[in-house]
Design brief:
heterodimer, A: mainly alpha, 5 helices, B: four-stranded antiparallel beta sheet, 25 strands, 4% helix
């Protein structure tokens, strides 16, 4: 009888959720900052409404990206225990996302699909979101090992 | 097989019964490589541009008189970039001068250019670049590229925001996301709205645009109309006033292709609201005002070519307001790049594909 361990899948989904939420907030932040620079400011209510809008709309675009990104991280962690270091995992997730963004922009008809990644700072912020998700995943895995 | 049947039907000019106005469609030319614009010559011929850089002269029946690739300085071809609009200058009868808009530069450093040329029996002579939008930017998207003449014989040229540079549409110091007004030699008319104003590009006529690909001046109502692509939703029909700000990206009814909000505002103080809009997007790509005689019911209506909607939208205007909209030519099931009102009263359509067609629309009877 084959035994399947489901907890890594649950941890992965949690990490994807965290990454997506962080990425949505980041996306909102960059767009709002750009508009605020043109208008002299954005009201708190408009900021909250925009973040909520992006959490419910932009997330549909970003969740598959985060899933592919962190799934690749999870697979590599599974086969290469050497990577079970926080800084390595964070760097690996960021590197993979960077590659994914390059591929998306090469394939998509527009120059840059995700508006926040039009600037280097925006790309870096999105990479940090990915790193945060991967760290969450690794932390959950390690925590399970300790308490197993 | 289905495509062949449709083509055959079009060749035999099948009358289509429309709710108000029966018409028939006839393919005048096919196998066009992404045709972009059409203009009518005084002798009944037509000039047609293809995005690939080709200029064709066609007889009224669609037969080809010449097909050339003019040596446009630094013509750039990639994605949306290429040869765009063509227009006759007001004194064409005296000097055979035409203007061509096109994307110029390299993938890393490009923008929209305007060139003048002399039309001859076999092609174009004396091709000169007379304007290049600044600054140069990277990417091959959002070039605008439509041209219209105003009653004082100056011209307006539409320019896109370059997609990645949308905030620059609000920067009055450059040409991204602007409509510029020029003389036919590329010089700046001295009565432009921002001439001699510090921090403003003198060529700017209006600002806050995303990607304007339809513009015409209606002499009887003394109105300059334009339409522009919104992002996901938020396509707009605007009445252009000198010096006005049309809002992009601060005020828009569209959202990013990713679903993210571009801006929290759909309207903003000091920015002009659209007179009509389309959400979801139809991708308006060309526009004409019908002043012909073959379709009396269409007199004074605006026709908007739509890429995504694969149709032409007929707008009835009263007192500068759209009072009704009718969707036409859906049966073609093709992206429509441009629509023009011919001197013979017929409507002419350009379909957008590597096997594009020039289609003439006339009354069914």
């Amino acid at each position: 009888m084959i035994s399947v361990r489901w907890h890594p899948v649950g941890y992965l989904l949690l990490a994807v959720l965290l990454t997506t939420v962080l990425a949505c907030i980041t996306q909102s932040g960059f767009n709002l900052a750009a508009i605020a620079a043109l208008t002299g400011g954005v009201a708190a209510g408009d900021i909250a409404a925009t973040i909520w809008f992006d959490l419910t709309h932009f997330s549909l675009t970003y969740t598959p990206i985060a899933l592919v990104n962190l799934l690749a991280v999870a697979v590599l962690l599974h086969f290469l225990p050497l990577l079970w270091r926080y800084w390595l995992t964070a760097g690996l997730a960021a590197l993979l996302l960077f590659g994914i963004l390059l591929i998306i922009n090469a394939v998509a008809p527009m120059p840059t699909l995700i508006a926040a990644t039009r600037s280097n700072l925006g790309v870096f912020s999105m990479l940090l979101c990915s790193s945060a998700g991967s760290l969450c995943y690794l932390w959950l895995l390690k925590r399970r090992q300790v308490y197993a | 097989m289905l495509k062949f049947a449709i083509l055959l039907a079009l060749f035999f000019a099948v009358p289509v019964l429309n709710a108000a106005q029966p018409y028939k469609l006839k393919v005048l030319a096919d196998n066009l490589n992404y045709p972009w614009a059409l203009v009518f010559l005084p002798d009944g011929d037509m000039l047609l541009t293809e995005r690939s850089g080709t200029v064709k002269r066609l007889a009224a029946d669609g037969s080809e008189r010449f097909s050339i690739k003019p040596a446009l300085p630094e013509l750039m071809q990639a994605s949306q970039a290429g040869l765009q609009d063509v227009i006759l200058t007001p004194d064409f009868a005296a000097n055979n001068q035409i203007l061509l808009s096109y994307a110029c530069g390299t993938l890393k450093a490009n923008n929209t250019c305007l060139a003048s040329a002399e039309l001859t029996v076999s092609g174009l002579n004396n091709i000169k670049r007379i304007f290049q939008a600044q600054p140069l930017k990277s990417g091959a998207a959002h070039f605008g590229g439509r041209i219209a003449f105003l009653p004082d014989n100056s011209l307006v040229l539409t320019l896109g925001d370059g997609f990645d540079y949308r905030e620059q549409a609000q920067n009055p110091a450059n040409h991204l996301g602007k409509i510029v007004r020029l003389n036919t030699d590329g010089s700046v008319p001295q009565d432009n709205p921002f001439v001699n104003k510090a921090g403003y590009a003198a060529e700017i006529y209006s600002l806050g645009h995303r990607n304007v690909q339809g513009i015409f001046y209606d002499a009887p109502s003394q109105t300059l109309y334009s339409h522009e692509h919104g992002p996901r939703g938020g396509d707009e029909l605007n009445i252009i006033s000198a010096g006005a700000n049309y809002g992009w990206p601060v005020a828009t009814k569209g959202i990013d292709y990713t679903g993210a909000r571009v801006s929290p505002y759909t309207a903003f103080s000091g920015m002009q609201a659209a007179v009509w809009g389309w959400t979801p997007s139809i991708a308006p790509a060309g526009m004409t005002l019908y002043r012909g005689e073959l379709f009396p019911q269409w007199q004074g209506n605006i026709f908007v070519a739509a890429l995504a909607a694969k149709s032409v939208h007929r707008l009835q205007i009263e007192n500068h307001k759209v009072v009704s909209e009718q969707v036409l030519f859906r049966e073609l099931k093709q992206r429509i790049r441009d629509v023009r009102s011919g001197p013979d009263g017929a409507l002419y359509l350009l379909t957008d594909s590597d096997k594009g067609q020039l289609i003439k629309v006339t009354p069914a009877n």
